[in-house]
Amino acid sequence: MDATKSKSLRETAAHVRLNALKAVVSAGSGHIGGSLSITDILTALYFHQMKVDVKNPKWEGRDRLVLSKGHCSPALYGVLAEKGFFPKEELKDFRQIDSRLSGHVEISVPGVDMSTGSLGQGLSAAVGMALAAGMDKVDYRVYAIMGDGEIEEGQIWEAAMSAGHYKLDNLVAIVDNNNLQIDGQITDVMSPYPIDKKFDSFNWNTIVIDGHDMDQIIDAFDQAEKTKGKPTAIIAKTVKGKGVSFMENVAGWHGKAPDQTQYEAAVSEIEAYLEEVRG
Ligand SMILES: Cc1ncc(C[n+]2csc(CCOP(=O)(O)OP(=O)(O)O)c2C)c(N)n1
Ligand SMILES: [Mg+2]
Hints:
alpha/beta, Rossmann fold, 44% helix, binds thiamine diphosphate, binds magnesium ion
């Protein structure tokens, strides 16, 4: 990928981080840690990889995304608003009683392909969509993002088995490997390691990347597209809370909103980063 494109994606990701923070601080609640760990991946998907049409969100030929870790709606709503699926001003109404932007991801929001929030189910939905593409003879790709704690759920592995069995090469699963779940380190709760070998054994193509490096993210999507006869699993090594130093790798920021002072500190840090990227 050329340097200008990579720079522009990094700038966009910073704006998406600001959007996610805005939503969570306005609501006074929400899942910011795991939102910041997938922001770079979501930005690469919506601003580079996926075929979507903001004017026609339900276009049959669009690529689909299932955010299986549906508690991270601030990141998905943040990227969809940045892309223009709905006005950015709506983010301040996140989690309000009359808002369509609820705490977990809802299909009623323009640009959303699947309602999620009950962990463990999203990959099964994505497998169904990927199978449907073949049956309907429509050429689209399906992306599913799961948490590394989430993959402790058994249903994920039934879905993995069926995707391997049906050779769903239009399906890409991304594991947000931030090493933390709600109660702490994934290795202390129920280790899913080695994640790549598990997908490999279900007949998947597996790629391990740094989930904050735009070039590696885009490269992995390219490799997935070139892989025939197998689905691809991208194990993305990430940092929970990425981009806001005091939130990084701290389990306590899983589902907590910053107060006003913390919010302002987070915004200044991201704005300083933006300046740095712009040069
Ligand atoms: C079936 C189900 N069980 C429990 C929860 C509550 N819950 C929400 S987030 C979370 C932790 C998920 O950890 P991980 O998948 O690693 O997410 P991330 O680190 O990306 O936030 C839990 C247990 C849920 N949403 N669904
Ligand atoms: Mg996690």
